[in-house]
Amino acid sequence: MSKAFTKEDDDTESIRLDDLPQSPHPNLVTPQGLADLQARLEARRADLAGLLAAPEDFDSKMAVAVAERDIRFLEARVGRAILVDPKGQAPDVVAFGAEVDVLTEDDRRITFAIVGEDAADPARGKISVYSPIARALIGETLGSTVEWRKPSGNEDLEIEAIRFP
Questions:
Q1: Which of 22, 72, 90, 128 would you call most buried, defined as having the most Cβ atoms within 10 angstroms of its Cβ?
Q2: What is the signed CA dihedral for 34, 36, 40, 46, rounded to 10 degrees?
Q3: Distance between CA atoms of 123 and 43, rounded to whole angstroms?
């Protein structure tokens, strides 16, 4: 007889979730970006240790499975990390790790920090190195004008400052 007909629920089996997809791009990270990834990994490992002490019910097993999946993802991100020290970049050319001040067509000043995918937070001005705006800026110099291709239309940006903090 099939196991399905002998037990309705089998709480003794663990759950394994599929791995989260990894980006196809190289995982460029600054020293701070790598430290942040490693801190996230250690925090998730600590979460897992706490979860393993919980009672064995479906919800706790699911929480363990999520934590284990997250740990596998973060281990892969750390393992694929390519450390780039922004201080080693040419100071007058926009590159990975740069903070770039631009002037928009309507005279607004915006600062973008070009960071790795894991550190990107567009609402805070941290843009992925693979984003359209970063691709437009990288390789340009102070005073250059670049075209930012946005869904709402193209906009010209003038590069006013380049810093590598």
A1: 128
A2: 100
A3: 24
